[in-house]
Automatic annotation (TrEMBL):
Protein name: DUF4185 domain-containing protein
Signal peptide span: 1-24
UniProt feature, compositional bias: Low complexity: 524-560
Compositionally biased tracts (Polar residues): 505-523
Region span, Disordered: 505-597
Lineage: Bacteria, Bacillati, Actinomycetota, Actinomycetes, Kitasatosporales
Alphabetized UniProt keyword annotations: Signal
């Protein structure tokens, strides 16, 4: 692997990683119920609630400590109980013991950086398998703590292919996870409906629930993209149940739509409507033969209420990305924000995505802006080589979010001021090859590139800020040129973000002229100037292109060596984000950006 890294100047709050096709017109369901309206099936809007969003490129802490290379397990849905411990369930691992089980429960004590774990129960002591044990096994999907008790949703999942979840039920523990009970003789949920159950994390012992209900989200058919003819999840459903009768299926109500801002509920699972519909697809054109592609967006993750921000956050994922949604109420409207692209395999210990993404409420800071996100990487999926269990445990990374608030730019002309070095600056990009989190650290000898094993039609590098600045110059310094790319195939253009929408800066010119070939050179600076805008985000992008890829290098890349935002001539309009893109969309080579001052 090349040890190049990037540094570019661009910006905040970027749009969805990939633009995808619109949903098909709704059809009448086979069960005869009324078809949802077009509005009900619309894909989510882009969120403008946050001005900056930053997630670490890889897990940094865990319980047990990440990197001990034991097969601890995955999934880890959790809840925060009245004894101040986090209780969690895992699949396919040894947990905090030494014996492998398909399901287990554990207690996590302490805070990130000082976590300890205790094994509580495993296997049949947790729950039963409803189907043929030769074909299905158990997987935990959601957990909630209420009145000192624990409730765990357990699904049947098809062995081997992991692509079919026909049933699920909820078990209860009154002794903090040591024993689990259910009086069911049939599953609570069946026929592939609502069989991936994710309880809404309403804080310690469900204390932040406003109405005495426990809320749960559900997916049909499967817990993630199936990669086969089985239906992929494109709808997220919501249910509620009195906290006193969680195991009584007859008391469950399902979200049935909105009436003047008020949620409507039904006891019939066949009359429910989704609170979130997202049928977009990403990674349609992957370079490496045999890699999964054409990925759906909704998967088993988690929904948490961030009380300080008064926001609900749904953390989803795809094979290569994190996908996050936010809403003001449990039923929405849900909007999409801050996709994080970790690129194609192989991953490293310092740069990797993961699955089963959750945000445990115990680890949310008092002001709500700092969180810890849990996710897992299994070497069985190709992200890591066989036998590498670095993040196959209760593994956490930082997630930081800054809500957007009205600001007025106060910076005057200053040719020496580099806005990429301002406090609160968060870099954004289409993707990073090596996970570099800073593009402006003074080291222009290093560079980053956007290789992600995808044949992209556009790419960008940029910055976002939690406040508005005046700016009128963006300096882009290239990274190393390679045989399979390193340059944009059309002149870079600068965009700024206004009211959540990325817009080309008017009247911009690039000096010197950008050659749109390898002649762009290594560590050369190209400056874009324009009528000075004000921004909270800035980005530069372009269609990056290069020679036709060889079998050794299946797609294109772009590089950056450094980025610099300088305000030296005053401005008229405020902005909070900027990014650099190509001037026209053609198959990209990918760009490299050098890191620098």
């Amino acid at each position: 692997m090349r040890t190049s890294r990037v540094l570019i100047t661009l910006v905040a709050g970027l749009a969805a990683v990939t633009t995808l096709s619109a949903p098909a017109a709704p059809a009448a369901p086979a069960d005869g119920r009324p078809a949802p309206s077009r509005a009900a099936l619309a894909n989510p809007e882009q969120s403008t609630f946050f001005s900056t969003a930053a997630v670490d490129p890889g897990a940094t802490v865990g319980a047990p400590a990440i990197g001990d290379n034991k097969e601890h397990g995955d999934l880890w849905p959790s809840c925060w109980s009245d004894d101040d411990h986090v209780y969690t369930a895992y699949g396919d691992g040894v947990g905090f013991g030494d014996t492998w089980h398909d399901i287990g429960v554990a207690r996590i004590s302490g805070m990130p950086g000082n976590l300890t774990g205790t094994q509580k129960a495993t296997g049949d002591r947790v729950g039963r398998i409803w189907g043929d044990p030769a074909q299905y096994y158990r997987k935990p999907t959601g957990m909630v703590c209420v009145d000192g008790d624990l409730y765990l949703a357990v699904q049947d999942l098809k062995r081997g292919t992991l692509d079919h979840a026909p049933s699920a039920t909820i078990v209860k523990s009154t002794d903090k996870g040591a024993t689990w009970t259910s009086d069911r003789t049939t599953p609570m949920f069946s026929d592939e409906k609502f069989t991936t159950v994710m309880f809404l994390d309403h804080g310690k012992d469900n204390a932040n629930s406003p109405d005495g209900y426990v809320y749960a989200y559900g997916l049909d058919h499967n817990w993630r993209d199936t990669f086969d003819p089985d239906p992929d999840p494109v709808d997220l459903y919501l249910a509620r149940v009195p906290a006193t009768s969680i195991q009584d299926r007859s008391t469950w109500q399902f979200y049935a739509g909105d009436s003047g801002g008020t949620a409507r509920w039904t006891s019939s699972i066949d009359l429910r409507v989704p609170v979130l519909h997202d049928d977009r697809r990403i990674y349609r054109n992957v370079g490496t033969p045999g890699r999964v592609r054409d990925l759906s967006m909704l998967s088993q993750g988690g929904v948490v209420y961030n009380k300080a921000l008064d926001r609900y956050l749904y953390t989803s994922w795809t094979e290569y990305t994190f996908e996050v949604y936010e809403a003001p109420t449990p039923w929405g409207p849900w909007k999409h924000f801050t996709p994080k692209d970790f690129g194609g395999y192989p991953w490293t210990h310092t740069k990797h995505g993961g699955y089963a993404t959750t945000i445990p409420s115990k680890y949310i800071s008092a002001d709500g802006t700092s969180m810890w996100l849990q996710s897992n990487v299994c070497p069985c999926g190709g992200g890591y080589p066989a036998g590498d269990f670095w993040a196959y445990t209760y593994s956490l990374r930082r997630l930081s979010l800054t809500p957007a608030v009205p600001t007025t730019p106060g910076n005057g002309p200053d040719a020496t001021r580099n806005l990429a070095r301002e406090d609160g600056t968060v870099p954004v990009e289409r993707a990073t090859h090596f996970g570099t989190a800073a593009y402006n650290d003074g080291d222009t000898a290093q560079n980053e590139d956007d290789w992600n094993d995808e044949r992209k039609t556009t790419s960008w590098w940029g910055y976002t800020w939690p406040r508005q600045y005046h700016l009128n110059r963006v300096a882009y310094t290239t990274g190393r040129m390679f045989g399979d790319g390193g340059w944009f195939n059309s002149a870079p253009r600068v965009q700024v973000r206004r009211d959540g929408v990325w817009t080309d800066v008017t009247g911009q010119s690039v000096t010197p002229s950008y050659p749109t070939s390898s002649a762009a050179g290594t560590n050369r600076t190209y400056s874009s100037t324009s009528t000075p805008p004000a921004a909270t985000a800035c980005a530069s992008s372009a269609a990056a292109a290069a020679p036709r890829p060889s079998p050794r290098s299946p797609n294109w890349r772009s590089t950056t060596a450094r980025g610099r935002l300088s305000d030296f001539s005053g401005a008229r309009d405020p902005w909070g984000a900027v990014r650099i893109l190509p001037s026209r969309a053609t198959p990209p080579a990918g760009t490299r950006a050098a890191k620098g001052t």
